[in-house]
Specification:
- By secondary structure, the protein is mainly α.
- It has one domain.
- It is built from 4 helices and no strands.
- The model has no long low-confidence stretch (mean pLDDT 84).
- This is Holin.
- Keywords: Membrane, Transmembrane, Transmembrane helix.
- InterPro entries: Phage_holin-like.
């Protein structure tokens, strides 16, 4: 069983890193947070994978989430006929 303090510390550090990334690059915070949440979900559901591979999957998922958010958000808005941008939802 994992220790709650270490898990909470890692999660807080990740959210802090995502926030700093969003502020430093000028990227929409909703997109950065959505990509972070999607990457955490993807890694948390993975089983029987080594730590190095999990880190690589997390980084890849985060980058693809940030870069693909605009494209997927546009497609979601076209399908649902929603008038506001859905980039943050596309990042997840």
């Amino acid at each position: 069983m994992s220790e709650p303090v270490s898990s909470a510390t890692v999660l807080a550090g990740g959210l802090m890193g995502a926030s700093v990334f969003g502020l430093a690059t000028g990227t929409d915070y909703g997109v950065v947070f959505g990509a972070f949440a999607g990457a955490v979900f993807y890694v948390a559901t993975a089983t029987s994978i080594g730590r190095i591979r999990l880190v690589a999957y997390f980084i890849t998922s985060f980058i693809v989430g940030v870069l693909g958010a605009g494209f997927i958000g546009t497609k979601l808005a076209a399908i649902t006929h929603y008038e506001k941008p859905l980039d943050a939802l596309g990042a997840v």
